[in-house]
């Protein structure tokens, strides 16, 4: 026992060399592989892995106009930085733009937008801001006031997806890139298993989605760990906004996130293993999957008659906050009085003991 | 004679109903005041809180009904079968044993009563696997556990059942404790013991002539397996271990209580005072332990989460070994037989290549890597190398020795049970002979010395 302690002490005092270059002093331990490496090697291996992902998956072609979904947070800031670096270094020939969405969350989004405006100057990338207020006439603050603190992430996510597409169309972009990292995708795989969403489970691990639609979107950070992105931003002293959304503590994703954090501590490669499992899932041919069509109201891509954004918006405008949430019991064409009464009965269970919104029977 | 109850308010109850009807109404209203709930199914007995609004009798019938449906609609047990029930002492396998015993007793009563007695009654045996000498479990309680198990099984007659209490290390000639202890990864250790357990159960079934193996795996157990397998990168092979029927083994494995939640089974054990052995909760630093506590937390938030996980995983494509071959359905009623003899349209699936340690089907990528490496090594491949090459990536990572481990690759290979090694040699030959045409070099196919 003592011998082990003594040798460990010795390890700490003698400077360890980087295990990749064996020249410089090791400055950090890489979260993905637990290797002790120096800063320069870390930058190289981080950027190189992303470059390989881009090349092996044919994400871009020369001349593409790319809209980078920029929130001012660490993922999108590092994405903007690394993409513009790799664009120059490897001559991708891309036209990069920053596209930011203003959901109207005071104390959070207005601060992070300032960061994006600074990024515009720092990286020299043109910025376009699209807001919920101008698109839907509702801000997230107003939505939360109307529906409470449960399910607001559903509204925000659905609206943001459409907002990104509309914003990209406005700047005539060919592709959208988002900063979704490996942790995000692993959480999504788990969430879809827990919620029984087999349709999303089959799509969520694709690195490019919406290829048959007007503007495809891709995730170059699919295999990049969140911890490594934070480390990269810290060491490179990149300017980013580091506060969590003020409405997020109640999100169901929190369960999956906590689990993944614990998992990473036991086995770091588990995050990539979850993604690999998600890619390997084979759906039985007898399962009914939703068909892709278009929304009758706005023409947006949808598997139902009306797209989710239209349904949610209608719910907000009619004062029916639960429209579109939970299992479909009220269709939008129903008598307003009947649907209101129906929802009033259910409103009793809205903030019930479990607070869950699934119809019980 | 309509009674308006209290809503009318005009006291219009006719006098002649104040006999029985009045008594019943009085009792009902008294009960409403004292909040005694009736079973939602039979409305006779008192509903138990832990039985989801059912009385004890209806709850048992509900669980037994699930068991019976699983057995009959999947043709799990035929009259000529010799069924071996793997009994760990825990509540799930206790209920499985109880239900199988009930099914057998009923079949025996029918047989006694029938004139022709043409179809026999299936026989049931019970096996308890002693593992305390292999992993670091408390061995001082082992004798008590064994005594309890003996008394449980002896109480389950007629018909009487053979009980096999088998120490795992007696089945194989190698030092299993050393082998398991050499695995560094805690999760890998647990999983390897599980694979050894299956190998041992199959060995017992073979030695004593059983042709089916029943496991008491509940819906909760399967939900845990779904998440653990996802987390270990086994998404391709996940559906293999969670179906009703698994014919990868000599004695096909069936899961009759697959649709029952663990909570429900524990409740049933408590209600009926079914003796079972308390499985003590070890503080696990493994992924399996983490998944268990995660699912427990999810269950507190929403009690039907396990069912949802099961349903999601149920939509994944099972393998061709997850159903019996058509000639095994001869005892199924003819109206149901077409269901099993239906062959899925589409391209015929080639037989899956299985990992020799965990028996999970290899993905296309793993197969390609294996074949590539085998090709490169050619005829000079050692038995140990060939074995390691044929394992899946998950076993490679968490079970097989790496440079940092104390035991060498050769040492580990020498300690492996022979049946496990044999599986790999067979697969090598099969995959080589099947896909010889895809080789571009003129290397002769590898033929191992001993197939045994």
Automatic annotation (TrEMBL), chain A:
Residues in Cytoplasmic tRNA 2-thiolation protein 1 C-terminal domain copies: 293-323
Molecular function GO labels: ATP binding; nucleotidyltransferase activity; tRNA binding
Cellular component, GO, one term: cytosolic tRNA wobble base thiouridylase complex
Pathway: tRNA modification; 5-methoxycarbonylmethyl-2-thiouridine-tRNA biosynthesis
InterPro entries: CTU1-like_ATP-bd, CTU1_C, Ncs6/Tuc1/Ctu1, Rossmann-like_a/b/a_fold, TilS/TtcA_N, tRNA_thiolation_TtcA_Ctu1
Classification via PANTHER family: ATPASES OF THE PP SUPERFAMILY-RELATED, CYTOPLASMIC TRNA 2-THIOLATION PROTEIN 1
Physiological role: Plays a central role in 2-thiolation of mcm(5)S(2)U at tRNA wobble positions of tRNA(Lys), tRNA(Glu) and tRNA(Gln). Directly binds tRNAs and probably acts by catalyzing adenylation of tRNAs, an intermediate required for 2-thiolation. It is unclear whether it acts as a sulfurtransferase that transfers sulfur from thiocarboxylated URM1 onto the uridine of tRNAs at wobble position.
Protein name, per record: Cytoplasmic tRNA 2-thiolation protein 1
TrEMBL record, chain B:
Pathway: tRNA modification; 5-methoxycarbonylmethyl-2-thiouridine-tRNA biosynthesis
GO terms under cellular component: cytosol
GO annotation, biological process: protein urmylation; tRNA wobble position uridine thiolation
Key words, A-Z: Cytoplasm, tRNA processing
Keyword S-adenosyl-L-methionine: no
Subcellular locations according to the entry: Cytoplasm
Keyword Cytoplasm among record annotations: yes
Single GO molecular function: tRNA binding
InterPro entries: CTU2, Rossmann-like_a/b/a_fold
Main localisation: cytoplasm
Family recorded in the similarity comment: Belongs to the CTU2/NCS2 family.
Role of this protein: Plays a central role in 2-thiolation of mcm(5)S(2)U at tRNA wobble positions of tRNA(Lys), tRNA(Glu) and tRNA(Gln). May act by forming a heterodimer with NCS6/CTU1 that ligates sulfur from thiocarboxylated URM1 onto the uridine of tRNAs at wobble position.
HAMAP family: CTU2
Protein name in the entry: Cytoplasmic tRNA 2-thiolation protein 2
